[in-house]
Amino acid sequence: MDRPGTAPGGITGDHDLPDAMYWFEVFSCALLCWCDGSLQKGDRTETVLDPPQSGAGKAGRAGKGVRLWRRVVTVAAALAVTAAGVAGLAAPPAAALSPGTDAAGTHAPAGQRQAHKAGEKRQPDLLLVAKSHQGDFIAGGQGVYTITVTNPQGISFGRDFTVTDPLPEGLTAASFEGTDTSFWRFCDVGPPVTCYLPDYELQAYESLPPITLIVNVASNASGQVTNNVSVSTRDEYGSSRESASGSDPTTILPASSSLLITKSHPQGDFNAGSLGSPFTITVSNSSPGPTSGTVTVTDDLSPEFHPYTMAGNGWTCVKDSLTCTRSDPLAPGASYPPITLTVSVDPAASAPATNRATVANGGSGAQASDLVTINAAAQPAPWLWIDKTHGGDFTPGHTGVYTFLVSNQGNAATTGTVTVADTALPDGLTVLNMGGGGWNCPDLATLTCTFTDSVAAGDSFPPLVLLVTVDPDATGPFVNTVTVSGGGSTPDQDIDPVILARPSLQIDKTHQGEFVRGGRGQYTITVTNNGQAPTRGQVTVTDSLPQGLRAAGLEGEGWHCDTATLACTRTDALPPGGHYPPITLKVKVNRKAPCTVVNTVTVTGGRSAKAQATDPTPVNRDRPGHGHKDPRHPATEHTTTPTTCH
After folding, report:
1. C-alpha span between 602 and 63 (Å, rounded)
2. Contacts of 498 (CB under 8 A, 6+ apart)
3. Are strands 448-451 and 418-422 parallel, antiparallel or unpaired?
4. What residues form DSSP beta bridges with 352?
5. Nearest 5°: phi and psi at 567?
6. In a domain, 278, yes or no
7. Proportion of the chain above pLDDT 70, given as a percent
8. Which of 253, 281, 311 is the last residue of a domain?
9. Alpha carbons 589 and 579: distance in angstroms, whole number
10. Residue 555: inside a domain, yes or no?
11. Quick check: 232 and 166 in contact, CB under 8 A?
12. Same-domain pairing of 335 and 403
C-alpha cells in the first residue's frame, strides 16, 4: 500500500490523504495480516496456550507460537503508532507555533528556528489605516478625504486589499480625483465607497498609494460627523479578516445665508511649467442686509500649483497661508473687489486639477471649486521654489538674520545660472553680510547672489544667509521680498514680514496700611518691562494725586524726581523681564479727605506703549493714638481710635 504523505520513517510523498486515514490503513493492514496467519490450517491460537510438548511436536508448536507472537507484537505496534498519529492531529500546526519553539512548546535549536523562518510566509498581525480631511466642510459644498494604508510590520506579505468607507449621513462620494487608479484598480463611489487592490506584495513598513476621495456635502448637513474607514485583506488561501479601521471626525459649517463665492481662471487652460496663470476669487452678499465682522477667504491649492502672488484691493492677504481677510461691511447685492491668485504650474502636471476656495464669516461660509485643464509640457523642466525665514523678532540696536532656501521641485535639473535677489530691504535695516556655500554675492548694494552649479530635481541649494542690523530708532514691522530666477525654471518669490521686538512697560502702585484723616500715607510705585526688547531713551513716571492728598516726598534709587510736578525720570535701559528700583511717594491726608481716594500713576517713554495703574485707598476718620483735650475739661486728655469713614 502506497502512503500519500510523510511516513514515520521519513519517506515522503504527495499529501493527498489526511493523516488519520493513513494510520487507520496501517492498523487495518496489521490486523488483517494477523487474522490471515491465525486461520491457516494447523495454526489455531488455542494451541499457543497449551503447555509446551516434548519432541518434534513441541518444536513445531513452538515455531508456530513464535510466529503468532510476532503478529501480536505487530498489532500492538500498529496501535501505538496510530495513537501517536491521532495525537499529532491535536497538536497545533507548525505555522501557529511561537517563533523559536517546537510542537511541545520547547525552544528549538537556532538552526531549526532559522530554517523555519526562511521557509515560512507569516501574515502581519495588524495593518494601519489613516484617514484625514482638509479643513472644515461647508454645507452644500465639497470636501476631500485622504485614506492611507500602512504595513507597520518588519516583514513583507502578499494578499488582496479592500478599503471600504461607508460615508456618514450628509456625505456622498463624488469622485476619486488624484487617486492612482492604475494602482487601485477597482474604485467605486458606492455606497459604500470601495477600492480594491488584488495580488500585491506589501513590503515591510510600506504604505500603499493614498486614496483621495472627493465628497459632496448635503446642503442641510451641519455639526460634526465621524467618517469610519476599514481595510480588509484576503490571503493566498482565500481566508479574509478585518485587519484595521480608522475614523476621522469632521466639522461641517452651515452654509452662509449672505455670502457667496465664485472662482474662475479667466485666461483659459494652464500650461505645465508656466508662470502667471491667475485664479480670480470673488465674494458677494446675497442677503437683504450688510455683512458684519471679519470675512476670511481661504484657498486650497492642488499640489500641481505653487502660489506666486495673492492680492486684492482692500484685502489683507498672506501668501504662505493662502488667506485674505477684511472687516468692512458689504452692502446687499454687492461684491468685494476680486482676489487674484497667481500660480506657477508643475512641469510634470498633465491631468485636470481642481482648485477650491472657501469664504467664512462668523460660524458660516460658502465654497467654490474651479476645474482647470493643464496642457502637458513638451519636455521635463526644473521648478524653483524659494522660502524666506527669519530668526525670531528683530530688536532695535541688534542684528537680525534672514535665511533663503531654494529648492528644485521640478522633474529636471537646473541649467545655467540661478539668481536670488532681495528686491528692497526695508527702511530701518542695514546689510552686514550676505552669502552661503557655493553662492557668489559680489555686491551687497544690490543684494544679488548667483549659483552656477546644476541642482538635480528634488534637491535643494545650500542655504543663503542675509545678516542685517536693526536701526535703534526703527519702528517696524518689516516686510521683505526675495525672488529667484534662472536655471531654466519659472521664477518664484516669497514675502517675509518681521515683527519688531519692543519693550512693554507695566506699572504697579500699592499703599501701606490705612490712611487716616489728618495723618500721613505712603505709596510704592514699581515699573517692570514685560516686553521682548530693552527700553531705549527716557522713561517717565507721573503721579496724579487725588483731592484730599498732598505730596510730602517723592524719591527712588536712580530716579530723578520732582515733588512739584510729581514726575520721575531715568534713561538707563531696562532689559526684558527686569524692573526699576521702586519709587516711594509720601503724602499728607487732609482732614476733610473723602472716605476713598483713587491715586493714578502713568509710565511713558522707553519705546514702549503708555501704561497706567490706579490704587483705590480707603481713608478713616481719626488718626490712631491721636490725643485731644476736652474743651469742657481742659485738664483731661482723651485718646481716640480710628473709626470707619461714613
Report:
1. 130
2. 390, 393, 394, 400, 476, 477, 478, 479, 480
3. antiparallel
4. none
5. -130, 140
6. yes
7. 74
8. 253
9. 29
10. yes
11. no
12. no
The pLDDT confidence band at residue 393, using thresholds 50, 70 and 90, is confident
The verdict on 137 and 241 lying in the same domain is yes
Q: Give the residue among 508, 505, 507 at the shortest CA–CA distance from 531.
A: 505
Do residues 536 and 607 touch, judged by C-beta distance below 8 A?
yes
**Length of the chain, in residues:** 646
8-state DSSP, 49: H
Task: Calculate the CA 483 to chain-centre distance.
Answer: 29
Domain holding 47, by residue range, is: 19-90
What would the pLDDT profile of 601-631 be if each residue is shown by its tens digit?
A: 999 998 888 999 999 999 887 654 444 444 4
Query: Among all chains, which residue has been given the C-alpha cell 502636471?
Result: 349
Quick check: is 106 in a domain? Answer: no
| Residue 296 and residue 239 share a domain | no
What's the CA gap between 581 and 6, in Å, rounded?
96
pLDDT digits (tens, 9 = 90+) for 14-67: 434 444 444 444 455 555 444 444 444 334 333 333 444 444 444 444 444 445
How many CB atoms are closer than 10 A to CB 193?
24
Number of domains forming the structure of the chain: 5
Question: Using DSSP, how many helices (H) and how many strands (E) does the chain show?
Answer: 4, 42
pTM of the model: 0.53
Strand ranges (E), 46-165: 128-133, 137-138, 142-150, 157-165
The answer to whether residues 497 and 479 touch, using CB atoms and an 8 Å cutoff, is yes
Q: Which residue among 353, 375, 397 closes a domain? A: 375
Decide if 186 contacts 199 (C-beta within 8 A). no
Q: Can you spell out the DSSP letters for 530-569?
A: -SSS---S-EEEEEEPPTTEEEEEEEETT-EEETTTTEEE
User: CA 91 to CA 247: how far, in whole Å?
Assistant: 40
Give SS3 for 28: helix
Strand ranges (E), 303-422: 305-311, 316-318, 323-326, 339-345, 353-361, 364-372, 374-375, 384-390, 399-408, 418-422
